Amino acid sequence: MDHSDDTSMSDDLCLANARLVLPDHFLTGSITIEQGVITEILEGDHRPSGSLDCAGDFVMPGLVELHTDNLERHMEPRPEVDWPHLPALIAHDAELASVGITTVFDALRAGSIHSGKGRYIDYARAVADELLAARAQGVFKISHFLHLRAEICSETLLEELARFTPDDRVGIVSLMDHTPGQRQFRDLTALRTYVAKKRGMDDNDFAEHVANLKRLQAQFGEAHEKGAVTEAKRLGAVLASHDDTTQDHVVTSHNNGVGFAEFPTTREAASACRDHGIAVMMGAPNVIRGGSHSGNVAAMELVKADLLDILSSDYVPGGLLMSAFRIADVWDDLPRAIATVTRTPALAARLSDRGSLQTGLRGDVLRVNNTQGTPVLRGVWAKGARVA
Question: What's its EC (predicted)?
Answer without folding.
Answer: 3.6.1.63
